[in-house]
Amino acid sequence: MSADHADEPRIMLAHGGGGVMMQELIGGLILRHLGNPTLNRLEDAAVLAPCSSRLAFTTDAFVVKPIFFRGGDIGRLAVCGAVNDLAAVGAEPLALSLSLVIEEGLPISVLDRVLQSVAATAAEARVQVVTGDTKVVERGAADGLFLITAGLGAVCDGVHLSPAEVRPGDAVIATGTLGDHGIAIISQRSGLEFESPVQSDVAPLGGLVEHLFAPRSPVRTPHSALRTAVHCMRDPTRGGTAAVLNEIAAAAKVEIEIEESLLPVRPEVAGACDMLGFDPLYVPNEGRLIIFCAEDAAASLVERLRSHPLAAGAVRIGSVKKGARACPEHSRRGRVVLRTRVGGTRIVAAPYGEQLPRIC
Amino acid sequence: MSADHADEPRIMLAHGGGGVMMQELIGGLILRHLGNPTLNRLEDAAVLAPCSSRLAFTTDAFVVKPIFFRGGDIGRLAVCGAVNDLAAVGAEPLALSLSLVIEEGLPISVLDRVLQSVAATAAEARVQVVTGDTKVVERGAADGLFLITAGLGAVCDGVHLSPAEVRPGDAVIATGTLGDHGIAIISQRSGLEFESPVQSDVAPLGGLVEHLFAPRSPVRTPHSALRTAVHCMRDPTRGGTAAVLNEIAAAAKVEIEIEESLLPVRPEVAGACDMLGFDPLYVPNEGRLIIFCAEDAAASLVERLRSHPLAAGAVRIGSVKKGARACPEHSRRGRVVLRTRVGGTRIVAAPYGEQLPRIC
């Protein structure tokens, strides 16, 4: 960082002091990128209209390293993280908050680029940053830049997503290829060069939720049936798809069976995983959903997903096993089983500790 | 930190990895302190009931050093920061989010103590943490522990607080002594010892807002008149009261005059300020409000404030000058004037840069 940005204006402790310099940073840089009538007021809290839908509320901290990576950056990640957590409960985003924790010495041009990306991604997600905070800590007290977003959303009427809704017989669907984000970060961090470098899949999925549950088309569609047919959604970030499947198996007390031959993994991701000793099931995405839905709606859900650009690669990857609740062991904590290409089965354990630090 | 906690269990990178160890940290420590039916679901986002009031939304990052200080700690500060930002727009808290950014090696007992304080303060503020996130970064990449809260609130009906509502002739009221929090931190950090050590004023002010605008007493009270008589409130954190007054003077394009003889400053804070070269007007609080209200309601507002334990020391400190809008200079950016004890006046400038790094 330092070599590339010699003699550049940098963030100083004084930029976080609550005085004129902080006002200049906020007015000159933050509002230039993120400004909107609500944020521009710079009140202690943003005041928003009442909401007649159920509210969704989420937060995530982003400490990804490096800040800029193939297919995205910490700014895009911070917006998508909040928007996708809202999407996973069937909510469209209403508003975002953004907190910055900045290490003294960060080149202002880096912050500028990150804020530009926050703005572009928020526009893509059709949501605004309405409130925020900026803290500056001394050199060595933080690593460059951390972003923390919170998201407020409106849950689509008639949609009730929860592991408790997952039923034996449900289909398990992935909206796209697995592991892209994690491999993009780790290959860049380890200096690996591939013929076709892996891009992060980071993308905001609020529009996909609207596409599934609340189509605005004036033509009558059968998609409103999806509001009850879809039982649970999760975005497979840290711990990857294996973590999501295990959490849901445990919460719903079911056995989930996935088919190795159905798992959508890019050849370059599979190759990198082979080289680095990772299993793509444990590698994070930042623009995918794992969806549980009623068996009889699975085909139409996959079709509907594929008609959206962010789920064009949607495929069914498995099922919740029927009768699994009868087994005392599974009824206690559930489990995830992989049916391998050669016809065997193996347990997909929940990830234990840290595979990939600072991946998001 | 390290010497005090030798051989203790510590946070490892694996505690942030999305796997079993993170689940154990969340289930074993975080839910033990903060658990409630919504948070316990551990969904990607919390789902809350619709809200027929206007919504308030805020966020703050906390990087205070030291983590534990006289009168509070980073956990209490993080809850109060969100609750008080909501209070400043006249909102009662509905829900909080909590993000943790933890440096590898933090003793788990420290996290335990901080979470206990978050829980106690949230209970005091009658609000719950309903969603959260935990990130662990490697040694040296963060300084111990950062907390980031977001707050969702319901704005009291009939209350419209904004600098735009401030009028010439309005009274300016402080709800208690100025500068306590900042002096508590800085005296502890600089190793100063006083005969009567200064305690931080950090406290959650949601109950005070309810006391002002929505008394639950079955007896009819005149306090509903305060809903329109109070024009603007701010909590004087970074930059202190001087920053708040200057921001409001600039936004409302008025001249604000405060009286040195009326400023409520504890003798021990005044003494520490003298010794350290600070002006108490620039030193942060974390449990006070600066309130602008209609002149004819000022006396009853002060009386009402004093009947609440968190505003027992409320006093009027000045006025918005009449006719100030007529002056071209003030109508452009406003200003703050201090009438000194000896009868002179001086400008209270907006703070420029950093007086007190990592004060909150």
- SS class of chain A: alpha+beta
Biggest chain pair contact, residues each?
A: A-B, 86 and 86 residues
H/E element sequence of chain A: HHEEEEHEHEEEHHHEHEHEHEHEE
Question: How much strand of chain A?
Answer: 15-25%
> What's the overall average pLDDT of chain A, rounded?
92
Approximately how much helix is present in the residues of chain A?
A: 25-40%
**Unreliable runs of chain A, pLDDT <50, ≥5 residues?**
none
Oligomer: homodimer
Number of strands of chain A: 14
| Spatial arrangement of strands, main beta sheet of chain A | 9-11-8-12-10-13-14
- What is the helix tally of chain A? 11
Net shape of chain A: globular
Largest sheet of chain A: 7 strands, mixed
End-to-end CA span of chain A = 19 Å
Give Rg of chain A in angstroms: 21 Å
Show the helix and strand layout.
2 copies of one chain form a homodimer.
Chain A: H1 20-34, H2 37-40, E1 46-48, E2 55-62, E3 68-69, E4 72-73, H3 74-88, E5 91-103, H4 108-124, E6 129-137, E7 145-155, E8 171-174, H5 180-189, H6 206-213, H7 226-229, E9 230-234, H8 240-252, E10 255-259, H9 267-276, E11 290-293, H10 298-306, E12 315-320, H11 328-333, E13 335-339, E14 345-347
Parallel strand pairs in A: 5-6, 10-13
Antiparallel strand pairs in A: 2-7, 3-4, 5-7, 8-11, 8-12, 9-11, 10-12, 13-14
